[in-house]
Amino acid sequence: MSVEVGQQAPDFEAKNENGELIKLSDYRGKKVVLYFYPKDSTPGCTAQACDLRDHIGELKDSGYEVIGVSPDSQKRHQNFIAKYDLPFTLISDEEKEVHELYGTWQLKKFMGKEYMGTVRTTFIIDEDGNIADIIKKVKTKEHAAQILT
């Protein structure tokens, strides 16, 4: 499935790091940064999460709620949040259902090998639940700036 700017963001129900059910529709009336990343505690993903953490005040002041999504388990998410003091929820998408809805689970190539994996992508969702922007070329160390501009 491909998601385009201007269309309704696909709603989903998924569990966060604490096993709580998160529904995108629960965030109506708020702007949401829904970011997909490959794996907890890897260099790029850690840089991205820490950049969002370091700018959470500005993001919140601009009305954004931040939600991260990766195929990691709830336990890995809990460890990642604790280790880096992350002030936002992480969705455990082990079945890749949310990834499939947003088209972020794709064939990737690395050092001549092909495999299925998460394509690092951020969806900016407006108060009405529509896709306001899609950031495909994520700069992990400057991601908050990309969102806020």
Automatic annotation (TrEMBL):
Keywords on record: Antioxidant, Disulfide bond, Oxidoreductase, Peroxidase, Redox-active center
Q: How does it assemble?
A: Monomer.
Q: Catalytic center at which residues?
A: C45
Q: What does this protein do?
A: Thiol-specific peroxidase that catalyzes the reduction of hydrogen peroxide and organic hydroperoxides to water and alcohols, respectively. Plays a role in cell protection against oxidative stress by detoxifying peroxides and as sensor of hydrogen peroxide-mediated signaling events.
Which superkingdom does the taxonomy of this entry point to?
A: Bacteria
InterPro entries according to UniProt: AhpC/TSA, Peroxiredoxin_AhpC-typ, Peroxiredoxin_BCP/PrxQ, Thioredoxin-like_sf, Thioredoxin_domain
State the family it belongs to. Belongs to the peroxiredoxin family. BCP/PrxQ subfamily.
Q: What is this protein called?
A: thioredoxin-dependent peroxiredoxin
EC no.? 1.11.1.24
Broadest EC class assigned to this enzyme: oxidoreductase
The answer to whether keyword Oxidoreductase applies is yes
Domain Thioredoxin positions: 3-149
